[in-house]
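Box 3.1 A note on notation
Throughout this textbook, protein chains are presented in two layers. The first layer is the amino acid sequence; the second is a token string describing backbone geometry. Keep the layers aligned when reading.
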Amino acid sequence: MEYRNLGNSGLRVSALCFGTATFGGTNGFEGWGHTQVKEANQLINLCLDEGVNLFDTADIYSQGDSESVLGKAIEGIRNKMLISTKATFPMGKDVNKYGSSRFHLIEACEASLKRLNTDHIDIYHMHGFDGNTPVEETLRTLDDLVTSGKVRYIACSNFSGWHLMKSLSVSERYGWNKYVAHQVYYSLLNRDYEWELMTLGIDQHIGSLIWSPLASGRLSGKYRRNAPIPKDSRIAAGTSTVPAAAAEEERLYKIVDELDVIAKETNKSVAQIALNWLLQRPTVSSIIVGARTEEQLKQNLQAMGWKLSAEQVKRLDEASVSPKAYPYWHQDERPELNSQIF
């Protein structure tokens, strides 16, 4: 296993992280998976044997049940791993059961600690930006949680560039702990992350943790021109994490066509190639992979230990290129003004 620094911190995380959104499978997450404690323990131990040291969850996954299953499954082995969890999204109907207010974050953190059966959270993410709460209130609260020892590092998820930059500026102004990482969606199918958030990450030394690296299974190798997405699948039903509007089919098939060619050249699976491409991108500290079975997990872990050639990476870059939004297409008309990040 390869280990990388998490952004501008001294924390070393495995290049592959195990995502536990499939744990629980209740309260609206039935389609994600139904992994319970015994199976979860087996998957976790397999990860540890392969050198994975980072495990990711969130309070909203199965409304706390994912954290609870994870907490029970790691009993006796908590000291062998790093745990990442998240807050901000609704955990009830009450008006103070969501957001990044001081009231909610303290309550959410305490609840996560209890469910995870631990005395600290290694990486605590704001799951999304709360436009109703002053940034200063959120960051001061997170700084207090770090000072208290309940949280080791703070991070964000699904922020825009200006949201993240404003937060970093406020933390610097007051001498508070800064976000060291940004959990983002990034895949061969959708490369919007590169336009602004990646360059921000390079400039500000923010590490990225990649969610849905296979575009909700679209890049798993199951789907291609002669094997389209089934109409009864989660993707077709619109319940996957990556919406259909962001995944135009012809673009997907063009990418998979090239993945198929490279799969034959490397004797690797389509999914392994898609993951390996991400492992070579700037700012990437860790890629979150999920699995419902041990075989799926073993296959994903085999994305490590080898590298696509520069020529193969270039072919995938060309197959997955997409039109940019303004002002990025305008900036690209003056390439001499762009930083060379690749």
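The first strand starts at residue 3 and ends at 5. The two ends are 24 Å apart (CA to CA).
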